[in-house]
Every structure is written in C-alpha cells, then in structure tokens.
Amino acid sequence: MITLCDKAREDCPEFDDRTRLVHWSIPDPVAAGGGSERGALAAFVHTTSDIDTRVRHLLPVLARPPEVRP
C-alpha cells in the first residue's frame, strides 16, 4: 500500500502483516498551484513526473524475488 499525502497516511486502514506500507509525501498539486491555472498545470505536471519517477524505481524492486527469512 502506497499513500501519497499525509492525510491518507493518517487515515490508512489496518492491513495484515504481509502488506508493506510505504508513504510518499507528495504535496497536493491543487494547493501548490498558487490559485492560477498556469500554476495549477505546472504543479500537476511536476506531481505526475514525481510519481512516474518513483514508480519506475519501485517496479524493479517489486520484480525481485522475496528475501528468504529464517
């Protein structure tokens, strides 16, 4: 489970022990846009780029076989 904003992190439901919880603190693009259409667009472009980069780094990690634990 990956949460992206601090509110979601706080309200995230409980899962079993097999679920790994990860939090990526990403600013709300609506709030970061400064109220203008141009600012909002720039904030959304930045946010989508940030998420894309994080997912691209995450995929190889997820593709690895799980560690064997004693």
- The number of domains: 1
Q: Report the sheet-strand fraction.
A: 5-15%
- How much helical structure, as a percent, in the residues? 40-55%
Mean pLDDT: 84
What would you say this structure looks like, in words?
- There is one protein chain.
- With 70 residues, this protein is mostly helical.
- It has 3 helices and 2 strands; from the N terminus they run βαβαα.
- It has one domain (2-63).
- The protein is 53% helix and 6% strand.
- Strand 1 (2-3), helix 1 (6-11) and strand 2 (22-23) form a beta-alpha-beta unit.
Topology:
Elements: E1 2-3, H1 6-11, E2 22-23, H2 29-32, H3 37-63
Parallel strand pairs: 1-2
Quick synopsis:
This protein is mostly helical and 70 residues long. The protein contains 3 helices and 2 strands, in the order E-H-E-H-H.
Features:
two-stranded parallel ribbon; 6% strand; mainly alpha; 70 residues
